[in-house]
């Protein structure tokens, strides 16, 4: 009887923990979906003027419109686009209101690396962003061939003589460059998978608990004889 009681308490406790973790992930899913919805709304909002002192916390994804000059020099950040293949993001300095900021102009294929691109006066609409693309596995930039492996905003600003402010264009700045505007596709939202995993484990736990209770109550062969 004590063994059955122990198995019952142990089984119920484990089931309660697994179910609570599943419910927590469902709650996190609702929170993340709401957050992504707010970010999408912010990204698609009406553009405003460039803030005097943009802040990575308060101004991330802020839609901005600037007018000025696309300056010579650019940095090539290696990327891969689905159904297209490898290429480069073009990061260039942009002079606006006596300030030089960074513009992520968009994507070019690797074969267009040495091509000339439009410079000079233009209007650009996009979103401010401070991408977090660097980890311990990110290679150092190949400065000789001008190939970078992440959008490290401070390093890019230093290389191009600009403020550490990156505007990712959603308007086209050159016929040969395909804009890669900011979206929420790269923000992970795995809470549904986590919830399914926890609820699945809870189901297995419940089944195993029932099985062991049945084994404990079932008479042994010697008892049956």
TrEMBL record:
**One matching Pfam family, short form?**
SURF1
Would the keyword Cell wall biogenesis/degradation turn up in this protein's UniProt record?
Answer: no
Q: Source organism's superkingdom?
A: Bacteria
CDD domains recorded for this chain?
A: SURF1 (cd06662)
The way this protein sits in the membrane is described as:
Multi-pass membrane protein
Against InterPro entries, the record matches this protein to: Surf1/Shy1, Surf1/Surf4
What is this protein's name? SURF1-like protein
Which organism does this sequence originate in? Answer: Ruegeria profundi
């Amino acid at each position: 009887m004590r063994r059955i009681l122990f198995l019952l308490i142990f089984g119920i406790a484990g089931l309660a923990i697994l179910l609570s973790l599943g419910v927590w992930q469902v709650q996190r899913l609702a929170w993340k979906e709401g957050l992504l919805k707010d970010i999408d709304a912010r990204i698609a909002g009406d553009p405003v003027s460039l803030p005097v002192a943009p802040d990575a916390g308060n101004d991330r994804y802020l839609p901005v419109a600037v007018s000025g000059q696309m300056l010579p020099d650019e940095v090539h950040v290696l990327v891969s686009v689905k159904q297209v293949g490898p290429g480069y993001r073009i990061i260039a300095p942009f002079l606006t209101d006596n300030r030089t900021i960074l513009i992520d102009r968009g994507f070019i294929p690797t074969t267009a690396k040495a091509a000339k691109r439009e410079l000079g006066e233009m209007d650009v609409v996009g979103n401010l962003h401070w991408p977090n693309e660097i980890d311990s596995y990110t290679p150092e930039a190949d400065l000789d061939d001008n190939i970078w492996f992440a959008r490290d905003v401070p390093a890019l600003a230093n290389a191009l003589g600009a403020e550490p402010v990156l505007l990712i264009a959603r308007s086209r700045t050159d016929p040969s460059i395909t804009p890669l505007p900011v979206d929420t596709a790269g923000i992970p939202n795995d809470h549904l998978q986590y919830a399914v995993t926890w609820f699945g484990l809870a189901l297995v736990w419940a089944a195993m608990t029932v099985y062991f209770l049945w084994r404990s109550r079932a008479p042994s062969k010697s008892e049956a004889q």
